[in-house]
């Protein structure tokens, strides 16, 4: 009997690492991405993750072409984009802590909320925030 494919929410650091060969995590991101493909993982992209990734590519990496390419990929009918609405934001507040690192942003809280909503098996990210909040990382699948 085949087990069902894992559900994996994708964070912006994973998207950025995959699209930027100069990123220090590029090799690891590509290895994890291939493993997820081998597992036939169902990938879930929060809408805000796509916007955050494209903005980083455009502003930090100075690559509007990469930003446009990423968005073009994300609007393909085979890609699942999770809606982020008012209820998502309300739930995301539970992951926000005024004393936590400034690196733990609302974007991270939204990814965690989406992972919770879709009962994800893992989050494709390199951020320790998710482990601290009880989630499994895609590298552990």
Find the count of extended strands (DSSP E, 2+ residues).
4
Main sheet? Answer: 4 strands, parallel
Low-confidence segments: none
Number of spatially distinct domains: 1
Estimated share of beta-strand residues: 5-15%
Distance between the termini: 19 Å
Judged by helices, strands and strand pairing, the structural class is alpha/beta
Explain what the structure shows.
This protein has 141 residues and is of the alpha/beta class. It has a single domain, classed as Rossmann fold (3-Layer(aba) Sandwich), CATH 3.40.50. 49% of the residues lie in helices and 11% in strands. It is built from 7 helices and 4 strands, in the order βααβααβααβα. The protein has helices at 12-19, 26-38, 47-59, 64-74, 86-92, 106-117, 128-132, and strands spanning 7-10, 42-46, 80-82, 122-124. It has a 4-stranded parallel beta sheet. It is globular, with a radius of gyration of 15 Å. The two termini are 19 Å apart. The model has no long low-confidence stretch (mean pLDDT 93).
Short description:
This protein has helices at 12-19, 26-38, 47-59, 64-74, 86-92, 106-117, 128-132; strands spanning 7-10, 42-46, 80-82, 122-124. The protein has 141 residues and is α/β, with parallel strands linked by helices.
Keywords:
141 residues; alpha/beta; Rossmann fold; 4-stranded parallel beta sheet; 7 helices; 4 strands; globular
How does the SSE layout of this entry go?
Layout: E1 7-10, H1 12-19, H2 26-38, E2 42-46, H3 47-59, H4 64-74, E3 80-82, H5 86-92, H6 106-117, E4 122-124, H7 128-132
Parallel strand pairs: 1-2, 1-4, 2-3
């Amino acid at each position: 009997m085949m087990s069902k494919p894992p559900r994996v929410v994708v964070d912006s650091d994973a998207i950025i690492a995959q699209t930027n060969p100069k990123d220090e995590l590029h090799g690891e991101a590509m290895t994890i991405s291939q493993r997820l493909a081998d597992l036939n993982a169902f990938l879930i992209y929060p809408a805000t993750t796509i916007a955050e990734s494209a903005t980083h590519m455009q502003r930090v990496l100075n690559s509007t072409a990469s930003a446009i390419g990423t968005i073009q990929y994300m609007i393909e009918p085979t890609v699942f984009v999770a809606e982020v609405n008012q209820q998502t934001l309300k739930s995301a507040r539970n992951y926000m802590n005024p004393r936590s690192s400034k690196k733990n942003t609302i974007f991270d809280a939204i990814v965690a909320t989406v992972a919770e909503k879709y009962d994800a098996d893992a989050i494709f990210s390199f951020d320790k925030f998710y482990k601290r909040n009880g989630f499994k990382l895609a590298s552990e699948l």
